[in-house]
Write the structure tokens for this entry.
Amino acid sequence: VEVDQREIDMKSELVVKMHGNSTILIDPETKKEKSFGFDYSFWSHKETDHNFVGQSEVFEKIGKNVLESAFQGYNCTILAYGQTGSGKSHTMVGADNSENSYSDSDESRGLIPRLCQGIYDTINQNKNPNITFNVEASMLEIYNEKLHDLISPDYTKSSNLKIRESPTLGPYVEGLTMSAVRSYEDLSLLMASGTKNRTIGATSMNHHSSRAHTVVTVILTQTEMDRNRMTAMDKVSRINLVDLA
């Protein structure tokens, strides 16, 4: 639950409240309430509210499960869906929805930078010398039905990519840059660079809103070596982090 400057200037009435895992909508005319149940309902209207939930708690409830599943070898997706100004980019990227959201000292970081850091925190805790890790990342924007590679070295020439389908890999984007990243610092710089290239613009609901869908994909490959048999086995996980316009 967020309030933008336009709503503050209009002195708009708050018509949403939360109780436990229920989100309650209030009719501004009749004052009747409708309650909707979810796995989680996170209140983020004011930090001074007793039930305020910050970014770290959202990651604890949602992001950690995704992180654990990825290291177990599962493909995972987090998709942020909702109307303009509802807080999708705030949840996925961070409070200011900019390259600054990837600073590891920023407590307002969203799920994407926290998950990226969590990947390397887990890798650094590995004590098995027979397991090695490889992390690759891509960042794609879908705007006006065209696909743009946000981290391409030549961003201006990386628009209008094509979707293809492979009998082994399934659907994929032809020509999309997949960069190998060795540390959270490398990954955060890559994501920050892509964030700069996102298409944003003012709307009647939000003066600084993403006007495009953004898909961050992180591919985690764990290679375990069996030195007795001199064989290696790969465990590959694909983490898709989607911020819809």
Q: What stands out?
A: Helices lie at 5-9, 55-71, 88-92, 111-124, 184-196. Residues 201-208 have pLDDT under 50 and may be disordered. DSSP finds five helices and 13 strands in the chain.
